């Protein structure tokens, strides 16, 4: 055994030496996204983590590493990079218990968060493993994030990363327990973009997992995502929606007369492009519904309207006190000059996700032609100009190709659970109707937003173990969770009876 370990160490050193000779621009570990997509609770030091000691927020923050293939689609390019991952074994029924693969998405992955998956792991006596998404956090293949270097950043490459990791971890687990050719039952979990990856992984690699949970899984690439703004209006209700529309109108008037004074009022003077500024204001409102805090937005604005107060000032207070200070949004995230920064740093996720937006999925949150809440300045041209300005000529999202590859909401998979919160604007890019072996659930309540099944209420800041007691209808959450448990139990049982990790 010792001789075998020494041989493996020699091979690793040789491979590492060749790797660095062939690619001097690589690094083995360098070094969120409200505007772009998801505000996950996995990035270290985020403001939107719950209060309390950090040990309760994470199941583990102890990082592990392995060598990942850079380009899974080239028979000639054998370069690798160091990919970070985490494992949590406290509830694991060794050696043959299930393995829950929790996919980290479009932000730094600082550990395995203590959400409802912790409850599921305990119930099923499962190990939990979680690899960081390529390019994000410490798993950056390059020292510079130029457009050329970003060519290996895609959902397709990320899915192969998961398959390679799954193979690597299964072999390492077998070695740990002195087993040969054993295969534990695996189940994949993800929320938001990683929820889409979870569904797509089961679609593309059905032999590698017993099933998947796609929590708020946005499997449909959308070019003009007008339904996003429309859902904000529906979630807000008539009174709050009307106030938000009035604020947008007043802001546009002031923007035309004294832009600098207006932007200073919101602490956003750095946003020189008016479209960036209006996107920032639109996101500030959307986030309240997306993450289960609608009253923090609507209550003070409706009260200000009834009292005859300056609505723009009232909204500026909400933006600065809640969206920036409490929620943790950064104005710089909306600055296209910032998005052009190619350095690998703690803010790289902003540029990285926009690259995926501008090449694969779009999700352009444009203003509908009628009855819009957000400004008409946030239109298709704004998004296309951003993609061109930040990444150069020829960069645009081929949503047709993405949907052709994965199937969109007509995904032809099996043993995938889809779940969405009723107030979440992203649910319109998810699969909201059930089909054979792909059940879909809508959790309906006043503050049920993005990833409610895993995160509870509110969805941000983190609620320990995804506690649903603060949801306006806890029973609605519990009912869907029970159905999810039944699907996991059935599909894991079918794996075991077949003697394979999947069926």
From TrEMBL:
Pfam families: Peptidase_S28. The keyword Protease applies. One of its GO terms (molecular function) is peptidase activity. GO terms for biological process: proteolysis. Keywords: Glycoprotein, Hydrolase, Protease, Signal. SUPFAM superfamilies: alpha/beta-Hydrolases. PANTHER family: PROTEASE S28 PRO-X CARBOXYPEPTIDASE-RELATED, THYMUS-SPECIFIC SERINE PROTEASE. Belongs to the peptidase S28 family. This is Probable serine protease EDA2 isoform X1.
């Amino acid at each position: 055994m010792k001789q075998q370990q020494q041989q493996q160490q020699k091979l690793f050193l040789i491979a590492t030496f060749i790797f660095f000779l062939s690619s001097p621009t690589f690094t083995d570990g360098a070094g969120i996204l409200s505007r772009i997509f998801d505000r996950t609770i996995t990035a270290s030091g985020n403001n939107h983590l719950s209060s309390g000691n950090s040990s309760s927020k994470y199941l583990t923050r102890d990082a592990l590493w392995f060598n990942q293939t850079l380009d899974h689609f080239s028979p000639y390019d054998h370069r690798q990079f160091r990919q970070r991952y985490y494992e949590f074994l406290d509830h694991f029924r060794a050696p043959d218990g299930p393995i829950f693969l929790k996919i980290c998405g479009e932000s730094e992955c600082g550990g395995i968060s203590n959400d409802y998956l912790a409850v599921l792991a305990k119930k099923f006596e499962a190990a939990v493993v979680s690899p960081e998404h390529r390019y994000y956090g410490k798993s950056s293949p390059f020292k510079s994030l130029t457009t050329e270097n970003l060519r290996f950043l895609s959902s397709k490459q990320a899915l192969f990363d998961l398959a390679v990791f799954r193979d690597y971890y299964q072999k390492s687990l077998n070695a740990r327990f002195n087993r040969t050719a054993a295969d534990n039952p695996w189940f994949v979990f993800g929320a938001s973009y990683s929820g889409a990856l979870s569904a797509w992984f089961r679609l593309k690699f059905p032999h590698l997992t017993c099933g998947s949970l796609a929590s708020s899984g946005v499997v449909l690439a959308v070019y003009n995502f007008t339904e996003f703004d429309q859902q904000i209006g529906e979630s807000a209700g008539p009174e709050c929606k009307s106030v938000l529309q009035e604020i947008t109108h007043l802001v546009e008037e002031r923007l035309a007369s004294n832009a600098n004074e207006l932007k200073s009022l919101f602490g956003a003077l750095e946003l020189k492009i008016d479209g960036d500024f209006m996107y920032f204001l639109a996101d500030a409102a959307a986030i309240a519904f997306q993450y289960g805090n609608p009253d923090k937005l609507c209550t003070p604005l409706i009260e200000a309207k009834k009292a005859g107060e300056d609505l723009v000032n009232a909204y500026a207070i909400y933006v600065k006190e809640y969206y920036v200070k409490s929620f943790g949004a950064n104005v710089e995230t909306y600055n296209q000059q910032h998005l052009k920064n190619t350095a690998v740093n703690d803010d790289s996720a902003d540029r990285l996700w926009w690259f995926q937006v501008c090449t694969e999925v779009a999700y352009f949150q444009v203003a509908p032609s009628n009855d819009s809440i957000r400004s008409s300045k946030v239109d298709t041209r704004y998004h296309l100009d951003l993609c061109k300005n930040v990444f150069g000529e020829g960069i645009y999202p081929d949503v047709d190709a993405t949907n052709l590859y994965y199937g969109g909401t007509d995904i032809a998979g099996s043993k995938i659970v889809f779940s969405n919160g009723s107030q979440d604007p992203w649910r319109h890019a998810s699969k909201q109707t059930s089909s054979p072996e792909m059940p879909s659930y809508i959790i309906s309540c006043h503050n049920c937003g993005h990833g409610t099944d895993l995160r509870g209420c509110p969805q941000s800041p983190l609620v320990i173990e995804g506690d649903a007691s603060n949801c306006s209808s806890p029973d609605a959450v519990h009912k869907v969770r029970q159905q999810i448990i039944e699907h996991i139990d059935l599909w894991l049982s079918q794996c075991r009876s077949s003697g394979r990790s999947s069926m």
